[in-house]
Amino acid sequence: MSEHVMSSSEISFSHPPAEGTGRIWKIFWLLSFITVIELALGFGLAKHWYGDPVANASMILFVKGAICILSLAKAFYIVSVFMHLGDEIRNLIMTIVVPLGIFIWFITAFLWDGNSWKNLKNTDGGSHPPRTEQEQSVPVEQGAKP
Amino acid sequence: MSTTAIPTNTKWWNGGRSPFNASYGKVMMWYFLMSDAFTFGAFLISYATLRFSLNGWVDANHVFNAFPFFGHQDLPLAFVSLMTFILIFSSVTMVLAVHEGHKMNKKGVEQYMILTIIGGIAFLACQAWEWTHLLTGEHFVLTHSGAVELMNTTVSHNPWGKQIHGAAVATALQNTTPEVLRAMILEHNHTVTAASLQNLTVPDLISKIDLNEVYIAQVGPPSFGSYFFGITGFHGFHVFSGVVINIIMLIKTKLDHFQERGHYEMIEKAGLYWHFVDLVWVFVFLCFYLI
């Protein structure tokens, strides 16, 4: 059985011998640390540490952006170290990473579209300025029985 | 499989060796995972687009604030943190199994595969609890008919809208059925029995409700449930299939298939899939729970 597989025409490839587990544990602690920071920032969002959600909208957007960047860092370490993509040769890395670049357009275009959709709804297609927060919330009486 | 070092100035494209220095199976696993990343990416971007198009969404910290055996305590992010750490830890045991495979240590591979499988099952159990909690938990919601009704979270029902206050509460209670009013009283007042409320009229029932304590919300965007159950369900299905693949790999290890073959590359390929599941969770966790 073993002879058969070993003598197959499969072309050869080589990998460096396995190293110690030190790097794996280092990345584990790094990922845990990043997760704890994300949770602390998220907990702050839950407890309104960054002020009123409406008045301090830009501050909250900044915190959410920071959480997104931390998540991207986690994704990088998982792919690069746990999935060993960082140890593969450049050609293989590029055939995987370059197509994923389409996400830059994908995310930008669709979030832009969502935002534009909201603006059109709030202004009835741009025919009047956006209503205030209070006017937007559905009045309760509207649904009440006459 | 040659284990010699790669000579410098290797001509990768001259034939006789893989130009990517990796086996066919491993390269194709990478391309499968790339296409799966596009699938998950499309789902999450669809969710984000819809969320951007609405004036209000759901406060995740209000929806996901429960923890098993802690009753009604407000513990935002707690349970989902546990799920995240379970998945990170099972990722580490998986990469350690791959590491033992490089060293041809069958016992080590078996040991770490078992730990990885346990982690996967623990994650699925957590998700089952979370789904059950959402699907069975009923909340007082002011529906479009003007009456307060009990509503759970499903793909089409969202009880997590904005809280209503003051005169709106009083108006809503006037239109509410006695059954719902009785449930509202029993939620906070533990001294009365259901039987004693049976014959009371609507105004009498309303007088027994503490208007400062009762929590009534508007109907939230119904797409929340569709996206939440759809995307976490698709991810959970990946975890489930990952657990099945890992169990098959454990059995094949026990049957000495990889020892006879001379390498544990199948463990590496299963590992790639398992790490991908963890990778997707990073983004599901980000989009549904954190921001």
Topology:
The complex is a heterodimer of chains A (146) and B (291).
Chain A: H1 2-6, H2 22-46, H3 57-82, H4 90-100, H5 102-122, H6 133-136, H7 140-143
Helix pairs in contact in A: 2-3
Chain B: H1 24-52, H2 60-63, H3 78-102, H4 106-136, E1 139-142, E2 148-151, H5 167-174, H6 178-188, H7 194-197, H8 202-207, E3 217-218, H9 223-254, H10 257-261, H11 265-290
Parallel strand pairs in B: 1-3
Antiparallel strand pairs in B: 1-2
Helix pairs in contact in B: 1-9, 1-11, 3-4, 3-11, 4-9, 9-11
Structural class label of chain A:
mainly alpha
The percent of residues in helical segments of chain B reads 55-70%
How is the main sheet of chain A built?
A: none
Radius of gyration of chain B: 26 Å
Tell me the CATH topology of the largest domain in chain B.
Answer: Four Helix Bundle (Hemerythrin (Met), subunit A)
**Beta strands of chain A, count:** 0
- How many DSSP H or I helices of chain B? 11
Secondary-structure element string of chain A:
HHHHHHH
What fraction of residues of chain B sit in β-strands? under 5%
CATH architecture call of the largest domain in chain B: Up-down Bundle
Biggest chain contact: A-B, 69 and 78 residues
Radius of gyration of chain A: 25 Å
Main beta sheet strand tally, sense and closure of chain B: 3 strands, mixed
Shape verdict of chain A: flat
Order of helices and strands of chain B: HHHHEEHHHHEHHH
Shape of chain B: elongated
CATH homolog superfamily of the largest domain in chain B: Cytochrome c oxidase, subunit III, four-helix bundle
- Judged by helices, strands and strand pairing, the structural class of chain B is mainly alpha
The termini of chain A sit apart by 82 Å
The level 1 CATH classification of the largest domain in chain B is Mainly Alpha
